[in-house]
Amino acid sequence: MLDPQAKALLDAMPPMPDFGAIDLAVLREGMRAQSTLSPGEPEPVEKVEDRTLPGPEGEVPVRIYTPAGDGPFPALVYFHGGGFVLCDLDTHDGTCRSLANGAGCVVVSVDYRLAPEHPFPAGLEDCYAATRWVSDRGSELGVDGSRLAVGGDSAGGNLAAAVSLLAGERDGPELRFALLVYPVTNCDFSTPSYRDNAEGYFLTADMMKWFWRQYLPDPSDGEKPHASPLRAGDLRSHPPAHVVTAGYDPLRDEGEAFALRLREAGVPVTSRRYEGMFHGFFGMTALLDVAQEAVGEACDALRRALA
Q1: What is the pTM of this model?
Q2: Which of 300, 175, 301 minimizes the C-alpha distance to 238?
């Protein structure tokens, strides 16, 4: 059963439009505008800085959140969601502030290149380059590069898992932890959660199909582990993880399947399904009590892993 607060939110939302029928610039602006609607002022953080880091095809914008206290701090390199197509540093500002304060770590939020202008694997390579830089030169940010995690929500969870795979394949960097919030892990629409939650719960099955079409230059790319981490043959090099899923989310089953694959590979993993929640709830702490609980649990997991 939907959580009462979640149901009230969904009831107040207009039906999801046909993304393919709307100009991409309008979609992106609408997502930015929606992110500013949360009540209250942004959670204060000791220091917030915008800068760029070197990437494979030019500079990659990042936003760095430093909590109060004495460094060097552990770090979380965070990749925002948005179907590989939408969202930016501003849409996920609140989430990154909460994680920095709650986990006592520097959060480096990465504004990776978006599809369809920059399809797979452009955004992934930006994310890997930013993670590598924080590991190698994090001291410039007051970061202890040996205490490093990656994380993200939805498409960002996909990128965090894929960066973890690349780190194992490319001899680093060494990652302590991965925070995977309702991650996209497989280009496959046949799971029970896709069938049961196809529409009516914010993220729809049709939206996900559209996102994948924008992200992949060739549909066969969806079979590649760097696009679909669930299809990786060997997950033993993946760092310990905390996986968050939502009961009313098309992505629920693939997130939980990835957690199971990690566990079977001998990787320490915790997995929590928030039964009455829908996709996107993690960023709605001002509106949903359960979101506050989920963020608190994620911060506790990060703090323990990076201690």
Answers
A1: 0.97
A2: 175
